[in-house]
Design goal:
Layout lengths: L2 H33 L3 H20 L3 H16 L2 H28 L1 H8 L7 H14 L2 H17 L3 H5 L1 H13 L8 H28 L13 H33 L5 H36 L5 H34 L6 H16 L1 H16 L4 H25 L1 H27 L6 H27 L5 H34 L1
Helix pairs in contact: 1-9, 1-12, 2-6, 2-7, 2-10, 2-11, 2-12, 3-7, 3-11, 3-12, 4-7, 5-6, 6-10, 7-10, 9-10, 11-16, 12-13, 12-14, 12-15, 13-14, 13-15, 13-18, 13-19, 14-17, 15-17, 16-17, 18-19
């Protein structure tokens, strides 16, 4: 894949994901307006998070990280018959696994919620509501898991933008289903409508991804006996990958367990803050990492080095993520108010969410680099190292949760995640250099990072002064202006840095 094609695929995928995230935020705006940061919203987001946790294990996360490198060997060899046998065999086996896990999750939904709520006997209403919602949402795993299978086929064949568009289908379908909320007054009935919306949208997403994969005209021969060696190889690779991803997701659930002991609404606030953090992470970092995995896998299969491609990805992530980080730290609170503060999402809800966002944003660059550097190991089919590093990071995160929650409350949970992610990245980086002898360069990152730190601090200091200058009573208009002001102020130092570096390059020439 050429440099131009790499950027083109990354740009197209980022564009599609951006559109998807816009619809995703519209979905969250509706949910926030109806449920706010209440006990019932906490129950809904736990019921939504659990199948999404398994989605990361059996979907785009661990499964595709193992599937794409192996499947790429078939596409590179151009043996259509063997490719068809492999895909058909895997489809049958993977469908069966997803069905069994979904059924067991539905059957033991109450026990799962009780486990999460252990030690919190006052959460009776939460347990009852969350377990009933989970019986509905768990079947989403079956649909989204198969969607990931067809998505992986597309990505291995360099169809990145079309595969990413599946999430647009999901979000639009979900939004249309949520319109039913406006016809129902009872909040309990509303939350069940939202749960069924997850299922309907998941089914339509699967329909879209399967049709898109079929249009590629790749061979697909249903069987359970052919290409067993590749299936066994996939299982061997995916098992530690699932374990590693499970650690990440258990980490997130652990944060939710700690949040239950703080106060009602913290789980919901964590969801909204993480959604804002995941916007740039999904649009840029995940897009770059996804394109990189396919590129790394193909180059490694041909015996070529990936040093240039890794450094290109590092520079791209640093250029985009660091300025966004300082904006979210300094002006993210106003973005939260613009997006969510209406209906049952109050000023207090916005303050809690904004406080959490500061700490999540501190770790944004490390979350991004973890995504990228893990792909290097996945492309080499060496899954055990990311698993070990993630395990260590999880233990550190839980320990930090117990320490920082005493001083920062809910903010301690977000800060612990950021610190553990930084340590995860440092371990991945060290072993990348040691294992693969790649000449990895962070020159651009280290140039921009001091600007990010200084800008973040200055924007937080300037907040009350700038707010005082804008004497507008209409809250939405005032917050829109503040978002624009902080966005511009945030960009100034980065533009100045670009101009200075540009002048130096010009002089050297």
């Amino acid at each position: 894949m050429s440099k131009d094609r790499f950027y083109r695929n990354s740009f197209l995928m980022s564009g599609v994901i951006f559109i998807s995230r816009i619809f995703g935020f519209l979905r969250d705006v509706i949910l926030a307006a109806f449920f706010g940061t209440s006990s019932i919203s906490d129950a809904y987001f736990i019921a939504y998070r659990i199948p999404n946790t398994l989605r990361a294990l059996l979907g785009e996360g661990a499964f595709n990280s193992a599937f794409i490198p192996i499947y790429s060997e078939y596409t590179e060899a151009d043996d259509r018959k063997k490719e068809g046998y492999f895909l058909g065999n895997l489809f049958i086996r993977f469908s069966l696994v997803l069905f069994v896990v979904s059924f067991l999750g539905m059957f033991f939904s109450r026990q799962i919620i009780l486990l999460i709520s252990i030690g919190n006997p006052e959460a009776t209403t939460f347990i009852f509501t969350a377990s009933r919602l989970l019986r509905i949402t768990f079947w989403y795993l079956f649909f989204v898991g198969l969607s990931a299978f067809f998505m992986g086929i597309q990505q291995a064949n360099n169809s990145f933008a079309r595969s990413a568009a599946g999430q647009i289908v999901y979000n639009i379908s979900f939004i249309l289903f949520l319109l039913l909320l406006f016809k129902v007054k009872d909040q309990t009935k509303q939350v069940y409508i939202a749960a069924y919306g997850v299922l309907v949208a998941g089914f339509l997403q699967l329909l879209y991804q399967s049709i898109s994969a079929i249009r590629l005209k790749r061979p697909f021969i249903l069987n359970t006996k052919k290409e067993l060696s590749s299936i066994k190889k996939l299982i061997k690779i995916v098992t530690p990958a699932v374990f590693g991803q499970a650690i990440i997701e258990i980490n997130l659930l652990a944060d939710s367990v700690f949040a239950l002991f703080i106060s009602t609404g913290v789980i919901s606030a964590m969801y909204y803050a993480s959604r804002l953090m995941q916007l740039p992470l999904g649009i840029f970092s995940v897009s770059i990492a996804t394109v990189s995995l396919a590129l790394f896998s193909k180059r490694i299969a041909k015996g070529k080095t990936i040093t240039e491609e890794v450094n290109r990805s590092i520079d791209s992530i640093s250029d985009i993520i660091l300025p966004i980080s300082s904006f979210l730290i300094g002006g993210g609170i106003y973005l939260i108010k613009v997006l969510f503060m209406r209906g049952n999402f109050t000023e207090q809800s916005a303050k809690i969410t904004g406080f959490l966002l500061i700490f999540y944003a501190m770790g944004l660059i490390f979350y991004s680099f973890v995504k990228l550097f893990a792909q290097i190991f996945y492309a080499h089919k060496l899954i055990k190292y990311p698993v070990i590093f993630t395990s260590v990071a999880m233990l550190i995160n839980i320990e930090l949760n117990m320490i920082l929650i005493k001083y920062l409350g809910a903010g301690g949970l977000a800060l612990a995640s950021a610190i553990s992610s930084m340590l995860n990245f440092l371990m991945l980086f060290y072993y990348t250099k040691k294992k693969f002898e790649l000449e990895v360069s962070f020159r651009k990152t280290l140039r921009i990072l001091p600007i990010t730190i200084i800008t973040s601090i200055l924007l937080i200091i300037l907040r009350p002064h700038i707010e005082g200058l804008i004497a507008i009573k209409i809250e939405l208009v005032k917050n829109l202006i503040l978002v624009a002001v902080f966005f511009i102020l945030n960009l100034i130092p980065y533009i100045a840095l670009k101009l200075i570096l540009g002048e130096k390059i010009k002089i050297n020439k």
